[in-house]
Amino acid sequence: MKLALLGVGNAGTRIVDALLAAEKRVDRPVTREQVLAFNTTPSAFAETTHIDDERQVVVGDIHPDVVQPEETVDGDETDRGDGDETGDGDSDGHETVREGVAGDPELGVEVARDDLPEIRRALDMVDDTEVDAAMIVAGLGGGTGCGVGAVLLEELKAIYEIPVYVLGVLPTGEESDRRAWTAARAIRTFVPLADSVIPVDNESWIAIHGNTESYETLNRALATRIVSVFGAGERDNQPLSEVRMDPNDVRRVLEVGGLATVGYAKTDLDPVSESWLTRLRRLLGRDVPEPEPQTDAVSIKKLVQRAVDSELTLPCDIATADRVLLVLSGPPTELSRKGFETGRYLLEDETGTVEVLAGDEPLPGATRVTATILLSNVTGVPRIEALQQRAVDYQHAQGLSTTDDQSGEDGDQSDEGGDQLTETDHGFDFQDDELVGGDGDIEEETVDPEDDKAADGTVDSETDTAEDDPETEPQEQ
Known about the structure:
Layout: E1 3-8, H1 9-25, E2 35-39, E3 56-58, H2 105-114, H3 116-123, E4 133-139, H4 144-159, E5 164-170, H5 177-193, E6 196-201, H6 202-209, H7 215-230, H8 247-254, E7 259-268, H9 276-283, H10 297-309, E8 323-330, H11 337-351, E9 356-362, E10 368-378, H12 382-397, E11 413-414, E12 420-421
Parallel strand pairs: 1-2, 1-4, 2-3, 4-5, 5-6, 8-9
Antiparallel strand pairs: 7-10, 8-10, 11-12
Helix pairs in contact: 1-4, 1-7, 2-4, 4-5, 5-12, 10-11
């Protein structure tokens, strides 16, 4: 599947940069250069190496409330909002100097709407006829990714006929309660509008691997998973597969909406050494038997099981998934049809759904076999439930209305229940004391696009990853 990637905020920009690096490294042309990055501070683009200058779009640079780096004073944490809000802070919980919209999603929405003409001119650089879907990439705990991201999502849904997905990073427990509140509101907004939302939970990966890795490492691991799913079958001159992947397969799995998650596992293959006699026979044009496969149906089944048990981008009860996609990649001789079907049956048993689509990706000369799974419309997600509860607790502790903490400034309109409703209610508030969906599930409400301005969390995946090193990227030749 060919994707138009649109990074928003610091996190989105860095992750898109990692995705572009991954597609070049493993020769999977996913984007075909259909890429844009939006931010409220131009300094964030200095960290990128794969996004062309003309595709870096600064939003709100002339807005009076947007704080540019040259305007900040080292150590100043009081530009906007509460004292522990860091704007585009690091996902390891470290506080940073306030820049851009300083973690204020309402300001993010405001500057994006003011700069809609500039955003639309930038979108003209993306040829949506060259891609199968678009993906907004952002953090969900700050002001830019979800404030600007929500307006961008509205715009894309209005002008594109292709699916629009959201890849969003959740803030960790070490980050401020306000960022958790913003992220919960963001999920409330994005889920009804986007064709599917793929949250990335740093917290679960940190719990397993500790705070020892860098943002770059986690971003590379995330890029591995995303490129493995969406880039399957996109190599030029790729050998024919037994069960060919098609963009419609990915689209069909994600079309049910809701939250999706991705798992990934690999098996490294031992290098095959040939004897001098075998090499001589090959040089003489004699028939040389192929080496025995190192993977059989049992080993493929174990590989798929490890992908199920791996650090999913969003840990969840996989039995709640509506649809599943399995992608097996590796040397053609290692992708046995029997093993392929065995992995598929395992997923049917584990998830309880018969809607399991699968495809293989033969990669001659590859040194590993990988299994990547995509689970769509998952529920029963403890991390989302905890995030929502934390958001509600913060809301009450701060005495905030069910819309936003600045509602009183815009002219309140109180309803009979006493909650304040204003024009800044963008559909991502919590009603009374209830969690979204009541039991932690996302409530699929219809949200008017005019009301659907969200909250951004430019939280970058920068903590730890199970993918350790560059060798965990998708299959390389």
